[in-house]
């Protein structure tokens, strides 16, 4: 996809710097702000009960380009959004004498749930029309209300718990299972049953070659289950656009689809592949045939072939040495 | 009045200069020799009428004898004195000290400025240095050559240029260019608020160290000198194609009763034979010395303003310091067009080199002036080409300068909470005692400054180690900084660089200097440490660096967050953000580029280029367009018209791309009635989809 604007826009870099963050008026350590990953972590154990965070930011615009360009009444606006709560807050920034645009954005605990997104837009008058967006910062900052460390989420949750002794009714019911995958939450979660004899020690502390190969087999089996479950979850909850085609979802679902769709529907763009999967799923035509490919894609991510090969070789060697 | 300012000294100088004995003067003035001797020894002063007679006798301006000036009616005679060849027949084909350096303006700027900084006079004010590039040609060049007594000089230059050695080749090239282009580049380096070339003509002192000697570093004891006028001054000559440097110095302590315009020129040539007579390396431009033992050697002279101006060496003010004029300046790595020195490139190189090496010395606090101010200008025949530009360190090293400034102003913090803050930590350096003294080790508390790096900062994530006059010894990447740590800048100030005083500061400075190799580029085990300091000294630099790294980690490191749980073997298989996916090969057509505008009817007219994976079958593609909303919303648009442009044909609503091609393009006009909003209000997005029913 490529896009065109009907009026000239700013090409130069729009840099956003988070200057500092305060929780109810007290500054957070700067180590809770990651400029590499563009994430602010707001959760401090010692200060779990806060009401408002205030993010001070500074934006530098390509000033020479803006001065020479056709834009007038240029202003810079910080926008805080969160899909989950539909919150949207725009705050104008003010221009300092040194040319930087500065201001602060409040993050109210009551308006947000987990991860808000902070972007900066440049707005101006062009072609006689006021209030047009003429530029935006390349990437959004993530304001994570629940994280202690400023990181983009890259891994799913893995919970090691004794199913039988759990407080959760549904886990107790499934206490016979060595593991379970739950894709309904904010992030998918893999539950490992520590009540299942020998599973936790095997996964956490294999020593001999045989033990290691068994560990690999089990881990790849679990991962294969997880990828399959995540793929199904990702394609089963799609939003349909005006044109009747499914929209690419966001968050972990997007990552899963980007990683797996090229193996499920080879040689097609993401949009085409998603449309095809969606159609097969909704009209049932060829849906079962597709399962083979989904399984294949999940096994590849879980590196099942590698671990099976390792296990077979280990068995061979064990037999050789017994002879 | 000091000895040298006295009438006696003045009179003695006039006698020497005119090669007149006391007896001869006595006879001319109708006096006894003892009377003249009494004047010379300051035991008596002549009467007013005698003073006038003395002025007349020496051909001086009226009043010279009272103001003790040398303002003569005739100009001072200047000569080139070329050193005779060694009687043992030895020949030197270049100056060893100059050989240590390439002709490189960056090195020159570093060495010359460090010398000026080390020779700083009033510590409460900055040392000012100014670099001026000046290209001369035509009449201006001729006038300059006349004053240089070029006719006496040229035979020596031509003779020396005949050798095959490096120096001679550079010289030959310089002469050839001078002949062909009739232009000469001068580079002048002025310093103010510096000591100037003080001291006697031939004996120990700054003057002799620079003008008469090689490798005399005169390192002042106990002060943060980086080795002034040692090897470094050779860069001045190394940067002259002709091996010629002229000097004009205003002295901080008078010599022979004078402060201003002590001038001399020094030429460094290889061995040469001129008019059948062999000459060793150096030559000097100056006044013929009449002192017994130095007769006919060119010595420095006290010039008038006019001469200083003619030799392009006039100084701005009476403030002490020295001006060096590099005649025939060049830079090996940065030659412009032949005959047209690239003034802009050289100017830039000087500015950058000054910023690189001296950003710390140029940093000021609110109430503390910088140690150094530097500027660079460029002229052509007296006309300004690039106006004098002050080197602003914050333009080049914003985060570093912020860190140092915060330290000078005392506004550092213990823990960073904002992007502009500077954290300070003290790192102890235990300085071992000198060998055999039985003293105890003393603790110096070095200063570590850390601040988040700025956007576009070069080379973040390192610690700059400094001592002395905030001179950079090394830049090191600290060990074991956790991955994913945000970019930072860090400075370690040790010894005098902390700006503190005290025995432990001096001890640390001396210890660290002893731990530097001759290149002054790291702190490590050296022979000097082993010889001079007590046991344990050798490992001290290393432990100190480890302590610095630990202190840095304490500031920049995040609290270790608990592992996210779960066995690592499993976590590894569940990474969501591995950068795979759509990038690999793109086995399907994509839009490479679109161009277009809205026409009078309000429709988009666009030209679309596609990137096509080559294959033997045609691709049947459906171009789709929509208005792209801010938060990902889509409003589909239909096409009123599609037209093939290259490597394709239009098939109804689809584009059929010819087999075997790598690209295709077509044009489209959108259907205005399908626009939900006027085209001018929205962003147009275009993509290609596999056409319906075309299973591939």
How would you explain this protein's 3D organization?
Chain B: This is HTH cro/C1-type domain-containing protein. Chain B: It holds the Pfam family HTH_3. Chain B: InterPro entries: Cro/C1-type_HTH (IPR001387), Lambda_DNA-bd_dom_sf (IPR010982). The complex is a heterodimer of chains A (323) and B (696). In chain A, a hairpin with a 5-residue loop joins strand 9 and strand 10 (101-108). The termini of chain A are far apart. Chain A has 323 residues and is an alpha+beta fold. Chain A is built from 8 helices and 16 strands. Helices cover 33% and strands 29% of the residues of chain A. Chain B folds into 4 domains: 3-67, 434 Repressor (Amino-terminal Domain), CATH 1.10.260.40; 79-390, no CATH class; 398-556, no CATH class; 590-690, Sandwich (Immunoglobulin-like). Helix content of chain B is 26%, strand content 27%. Chain B is built from 20 helices and 26 strands. The longest helix of chain B is centred in the C-terminal third of the chain and has 17 residues, at 540-556. Chains A and B meet through strand 1, strand 2, strand 4, strand 6 and strand 14 of A and helix 20, strand 18, strand 20, strand 21 and strand 26 of B. Strand 1 of chain A pairs antiparallel with strand 26 (683-690) of chain B.
């Amino acid at each position: 996809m490529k896009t065109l604007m009907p009026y000239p826009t700013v090409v130069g870099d729009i840099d956003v710097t988070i200057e500092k963050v305060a929780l109810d008026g007290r500054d957070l350590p700067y180590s809770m702000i990651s400029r590499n990953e563009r994430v602010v972590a707001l959760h401090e154990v010692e200060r779990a009960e806060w009401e408002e965070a205030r993010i001070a930011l500074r934006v530098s615009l390509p000033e020479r380009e803006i001065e020479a360009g056709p834009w007038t009444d240029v202003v810079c606006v910080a926008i805080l959004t969160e899909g989950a709560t539909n919150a949207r807050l725009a705050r104008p920034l003010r221009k300092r004498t040194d040319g930087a645009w500065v201001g602060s954005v409040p993050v109210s605990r009551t308006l947000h749930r987990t991860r808000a997104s902070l972007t900066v837009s440049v707005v101006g008058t062009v072609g006689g029309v006021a209030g047009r967006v003429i530029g935006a910062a390349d990437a959004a900052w993530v304001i994570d209300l629940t994280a202690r460390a400023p990181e983009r989420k890259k891994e799913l949750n893995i919970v090691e718990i004794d199913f039988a002794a759990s407080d959760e009714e549904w886990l107790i019911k499934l206490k016979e299972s060595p593991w379970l995958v739950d894709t309904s939450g904010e992030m998918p979660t893999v539950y490992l049953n520590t009540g299942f004899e020998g599973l936790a020690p095997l996964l956490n502390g294999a020593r001999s070659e045989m033990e290691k190969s068994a560990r690999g087999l089990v881990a790849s089996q679990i991962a294969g289950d997880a990828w399959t479950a995540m793929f199904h979850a990702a394609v089963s909850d799609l939003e349909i656009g005006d044109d009747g085609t499914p929209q690419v979802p966001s968050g972990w679902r997007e990552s899963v689809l980007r990683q797996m769709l090229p193996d499920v529907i080879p040689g097609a763009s993401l949009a085409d592949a998603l449309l095809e999967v969606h159609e097969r799923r909704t009209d049932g035509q060829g849906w079962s045939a597709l399962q083979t490919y989904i399984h294949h894609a999940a096994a590849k991510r879980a590196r099942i072939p590698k671990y099976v090969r390792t296990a077979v070789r280990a068995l061979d060697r064990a037999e050789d040495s017994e002879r | 009045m000091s000895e040298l300012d006295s009438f006696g000294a003045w009179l003695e100088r006039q006698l020497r200069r005119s090669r007149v004995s006391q007896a001869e003067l006595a006879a001319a003035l109708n006096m006894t020799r003892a009377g003249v001797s009494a004047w010379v020894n300051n035991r008596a002063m002549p009467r007013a009428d005698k003073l006038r007679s003395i002025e007349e006798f020496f051909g001086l301006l009226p009043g010279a004898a009272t103001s003790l000036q040398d303002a003569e009616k005739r100009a001072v005679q200047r000569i080139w004195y070329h050193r005779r060849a060694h009687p043992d027949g030895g020949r030197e084909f270049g100056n060893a000290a100059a050989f240590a350096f390439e002709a490189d303006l960056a090195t020159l700027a570093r060495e010359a400025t460090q010398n000026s900084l080390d020779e700083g006079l009033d510590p409460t004010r900055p040392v000012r240095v100014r670099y001026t590039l000046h290209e001369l040609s035509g009449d201006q060049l001729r006038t300059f050559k006349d004053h240089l007594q070029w006719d006496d000089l040229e035979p020596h230059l031509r003779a020396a240029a005949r050798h095959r050695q490096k120096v001679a080749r550079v010289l030959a090239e310089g002469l050839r260019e001078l002949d062909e282009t009739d232009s000469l580049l001068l580079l002048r380096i002025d310093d103010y608020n510096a000591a100037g070339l003080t001291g006697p003509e031939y004996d120990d002192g700054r003057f002799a160290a620079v003008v008469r000697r090689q490798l005399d570093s005169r390192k002042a004891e106990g002060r943060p000198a980086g080795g002034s006028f040692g090897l470094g001054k050779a860069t001045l000559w190394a940067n002259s194609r002709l091996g010629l440097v002229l000097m004009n110095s205003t002295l901080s302590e008078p010599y022979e009763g004078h402060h201003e315009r002590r001038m001399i020129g020094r030429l460094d040539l290889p061995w040469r034979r001129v008019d059948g007579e062999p000459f060793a390396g150096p030559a000097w431009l100056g006044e013929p010395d009449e002192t017994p033992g130095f007769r006919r050697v060119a010595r420095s002279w006290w010039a008038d303003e006019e001469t200083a101006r003619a030799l392009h060496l006039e100084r701005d003010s009476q403030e002490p310091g020295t001006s060096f004029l590099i005649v025939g300046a060049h830079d090996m790595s940065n030659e412009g067009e032949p005959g047209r020195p690239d003034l802009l490139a050289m100017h830039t190189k000087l500015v950058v080199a000054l910023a690189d090496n001296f950003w710390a010395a140029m940093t000021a606090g609110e109430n503390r002036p910088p140690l150094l101010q530097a500027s660079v200008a460029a002229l052509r025949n007296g006309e300004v080409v690039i106006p004098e530009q002050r080197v602003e360190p914050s333009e080049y090293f914003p985060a570093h300068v912020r860190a140092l400034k915060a330290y000078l102003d005392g506004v550092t913090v213990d823990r960073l909470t904002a992007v502009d803050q500077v954290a300070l930590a003290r790192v102890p350096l235990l300085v071992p005692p000198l060998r055999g003294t039985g003293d105890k080790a003393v603790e110096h508390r070095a200063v570590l400054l850390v601040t988040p790096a700025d956007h576009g900062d070069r080379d973040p994530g390192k610690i700059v180690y400094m001592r002395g006059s905030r001179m950079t010894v090394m830049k090191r990447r600290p060990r074991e900084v956790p991955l994913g740590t945000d970019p930072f800048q860090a400075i370690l100030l040790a010894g005098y660089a902390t700006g503190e005083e005290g025995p432990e500061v001096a001890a640390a400075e001396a210890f660290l200097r002893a731990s530097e190799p001759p290149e002054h580029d790291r702190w490590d085990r050296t022979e000097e440490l082993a010889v001079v300091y007590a046991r344990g000294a050798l490992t001290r630099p290393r432990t100190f660096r480890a302590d610095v790294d630990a202190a840095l980690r304490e500031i920049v490191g995040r609290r270790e967050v608990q592992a996210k749980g779960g066995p690592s073997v499993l976590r590894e298989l569940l990474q969501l953000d591995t950068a795979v996916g759509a990038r690999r090969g793109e086995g399907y057509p994509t839009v490479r580029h679109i161009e277009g505008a809205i026409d009078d009817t309000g429709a988009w007219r666009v030209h679309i280029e596609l990137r096509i994976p080559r294959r033997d079958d045609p691709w049947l593609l459906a171009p789709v367009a929509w208005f792209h909303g801010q938060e990902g919303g889509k409003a589909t648009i239909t096409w009123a018209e599609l037209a093939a442009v290259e490597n394709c044909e239009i098939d109804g609503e689809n584009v059929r791309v010819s087999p075997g091609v790598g690209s295709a393009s077509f044009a489209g006009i959108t259907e205005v009635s399908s626009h939900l909003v006027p085209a001018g209000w929205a962003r147009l997005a275009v993509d290609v989809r596999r056409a319906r029913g075309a299973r591939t």
